[in-house]
Amino acid sequence: MSFLRIENVAKHFGSLIAVDGVSMSVEKGECRAVIGPNGAGKTTFFNLITGMLDLTSGRVLLEDQDLAGIKPAERVRMGMARTFQITEIFPDLTVRENIRIPVEIAAGLHLAPRVPTARRAELRARIDQLMEEGGLTRIAGRYAGELSHGDQRACEIMMALALNPRLLLLDEPTAGMGDDETHAIARLIRRIHRDQALTIVLIEHDMRVVFNLADKITVLAEGRPLAEGTPAEITANEKVQAAYLGGAA
Ligand SMILES: Nc1ncnc2c1ncn2[C@@H]1O[C@H](COP(=O)(O)OP(=O)(O)OP(=O)(O)O)[C@@H](O)[C@H]1O
């Protein structure tokens, strides 16, 4: 049984076919990269997995459970967390306040009028732990909106992790970053993947990051599956070279 199984999914927007017959099986603990030229359907494919878009056809199964009809918020409760191409954090809150929100949600205490003292200490410890793991402790009191792009992304990733996901979906985690920030985020993702044996699916344009992190790669082109394999197999694949790595991106 694959942890996440996508069966022949399609998404049509009127006459435009954004995703056309894509299947993918991801094993527990795997880091899978989804790559492809601009407009290949990667983000649409993600939105079909998280339930933000309804499928035109096909099936998405998490641990053999068909997710048809299950809303995005419920999928988060089932252990699916994601980050977005454009970072989604609260700019007017500090880093610590940002992390506190999903920690409270995960504990079932968000906006609770009274939090028992014992649980308050437990929440504080969890927030501290997440900030430490994300390299955020040094900037805990800074407003998120004032941070560098890389620190904002690290904050967003740790917010997703605060929900205790079993599957983490990352949409272009290094988009718009310079070399140093890209390396820092790639290191963070590798550490999370290794330490927590988390299943990760990421869309990524930076091939150094993809080849560094991914156990397997799925290549999309014009909404269709083009190839799937290990980084070495994808590098050697002539169809991929022609359609993508050759410069079409
Ligand atoms: N809500 C929508 N309505 C209509 N068309 C859409 C919608 N979302 C995406 N599309 C179209 O579907 C196709 C695939 O888009 P998508 O954003 O999934 O590609 P992508 O591979 O993620 O691209 P990029 O790498 O540029 O982010 C594109 O032609 C896009 O214009």
UniProtKB/TrEMBL annotation:
One of its GO terms (molecular function) is ATP binding. Gene3D superfamilies: P-loop containing nucleotide triphosphate hydrolases (3.40.50.300). GO terms for cellular component: plasma membrane. This is ABC transporter ATP-binding protein. CDD domains: ABC_Mj1267_LivG_branched. Residues 4-247 form the ABC transporter domain. Keywords: ATP-binding, Nucleotide-binding, Transport. SMART domains: AAA. PROSITE patterns: ABC_TRANSPORTER_2 (PS50893).
